[in-house]
């Protein structure tokens, strides 16, 4: 079974990355923020300072956040998709309500925390790019 990832940001309902990613290897790694920073710095990756500034307020006070890292690649055939961020959240709410057999409300929550749903439901929020 193929599993996909849609990236949403934390700056608003419409902060959704275009396309989909596909999980390319089973499993994941769990790293602390400090471990992840070190790994990125050791590789000389661009954007470390920006990422550190964006994540400076993550977590609860002095507690260290943890990250689950998956191996992903662009999902072939989905790169032309754009997403209606409001519809994405509506479809998550609809899917979770069906799965739990009771109404689920987001109450305006736009957090980037992981949420699960079927690809069928997610595609209801797709906006096809015009050629």
Question: Can you describe what's shown?
Answer:
The chain is an alpha+beta fold. The chain has two domains: 1-27 and 70-131, no CATH class; 29-69, no CATH class. The chain has four helices and seven strands; from the N terminus they run βββααβββααβ. The chain has helices at 33-42, 48-55, 85-100, 119-122; strands at residues 4-5, 21-23, 29-32, 66-69, 72-74, 81-83, 126-128. It has a three-stranded antiparallel β-sheet, with no helix packed on it. Strands 3-4 form a two-stranded antiparallel sheet. It is globular. The model has no long low-confidence stretch (mean pLDDT 77).
The secondary-structure class comes to: alpha+beta
The whole-number mean of residue pLDDT values reads 77
Span of the ends, CA to CA: 30 Å
* Count of extended strands: 7
Low-pLDDT windows of residues: none
Spatial order of strands in the largest sheet: 1-2-5
- Main β-sheet, in a few words? 3 strands, antiparallel
Helical content stands at 25-40%
- Helices, by number, come to 4
Mass-distribution shape: globular
Integer count of domains: 2
SSE series: EEEHHEEEHHE
Q: How much of the polypeptide forms β-strand, as a percent range?
A: 15-25%
Taking all Cα atoms into account, the compactness measure Rg is: 16 Å
